[in-house]
Amino acid sequence: MKIFFDTEFIEDGKTIELISIGMVREDGETYYAENNQCDLSRACAWVKENIIPHLEFTSAKTRSQIAKDIIEFVGPNPEFWAYYADYDWVTLCQLYGRMIDLPEGWPIFCMDLKQLVVSNNKVLLKQTSTEHNALNDALWLREAYMRINNEL
């Protein structure tokens, strides 16, 4: 099962702290959560302006609950996709500890839509929903992937 996901996070060059995560399975089912253990006071001005206004604060959970929810949501042998995936992948993996602590059946890498676009000389679908909301970004990612692969 392909899982399209996006994270919002605070990073300072040394650490990456999850703010929120949105996921969409290829069958269209969605998952969204906000990390209630995230210290939003550490956010830079850009995060305060572009991400925090889009938080719901009704989907807040602990990191351990988010990690459990995601295992249930993605099912066995997921294939993860993100856009400019590097920080998103690290942020997701760190919910489980070290890279070698990922759930059984999970890959140790993430597919990247941007790399697919560049390597195939494709044009991306413009996002029309609110950007920097993890679930909206994940929904756009799924739709863009499917259009690129003529699956819509």
Describe this structure in words.
The chain is an alpha/beta fold and 152 residues long. The chain has one domain (2-148): 2-Layer Sandwich (Nucleotidyltransferase, domain 5). It is 32% helix and 22% strand. The chain has helices spanning 45-50, 63-74, 86-93, 113-119, 134-148; strands spanning 2-11, 16-25, 30-35, 60-61, 79-82, 111-112. Strands 4-3-2-1-5-6 form a six-stranded mixed beta sheet. The longest helix has 15 residues, at 134-148. The mean pLDDT is 94.
Structure described in brief:
Helices cover 32% and strands 22% of the residues. The relative contact order is 0.21. It has helices at 45-50, 63-74, 86-93, 113-119, 134-148; strands spanning 2-11, 16-25, 30-35, 60-61, 79-82, 111-112.
Q: State the helical fraction.
A: 25-40%
Oligomer: single chain
Proportion in β-strands: 15-25%
Distance between the termini: 17 Å
The CATH architecture name reads 2-Layer Sandwich
Please specify the SSE layout and strand pairing:
Layout: E1 2-11, E2 16-25, E3 30-35, H1 45-50, E4 60-61, H2 63-74, E5 79-82, H3 86-93, E6 111-112, H4 113-119, H5 134-148
Parallel strand pairs: 1-5, 3-4, 5-6
Antiparallel strand pairs: 1-2, 2-3
Question: Which features would summarize this protein structure in a list?
Answer:
152 residues; 32% helix; 5 helices; 22% strand; single chain; Nucleotidyltransferase, domain 5; alpha/beta; 6-stranded mixed β-sheet
